[in-house]
User: What shape does this take?
Amino acid sequence: MSQSRVKVVGTIANLEKLELQRLKAKVERLVSALDEALEAEASESYDSFLPSVDIFENSELVSVLVELPGVPSDAIELTVTAKDITISGEKQHSSTTRKAVSHFCCERRYGRFHRRILLRWAVNINEVRAEMSDGVLHIMLPKLVDRRGKSVRVPIEAEDRDEA
Assistant: This one.
């Protein structure tokens, strides 16, 4: 009878630990979302904008798609660290809109743009690739193999002491 009680207590402890891990992951996502929202709010001025992004992953890669129609690739600055991705640059008005006397409608965004994306994955920043196609910047971040929890057997060398 005492063995079954020990198993139940162990199972409850494991469930609580699992629930705490899930809660921690949700809080981390919430903090990241709040950071991005605060950054978006700070950049909402007349002459700047925040480009739209899609972020998705598979087992080997994290992909970020950034909508930047009308922005040439040489006008984009892309920086990747172990913690975040920063995309910045400037979208110039076209020659047609610059010559206009007045605008009846102006829904397209122009000016400086800046977007910082926090990384929640361990990525290999030395192998990051980026491609620009049809106004979409595709950033490919290869994942690092997670080595946490992996054990390695370390041999212990013994010194030979000559006692004279």
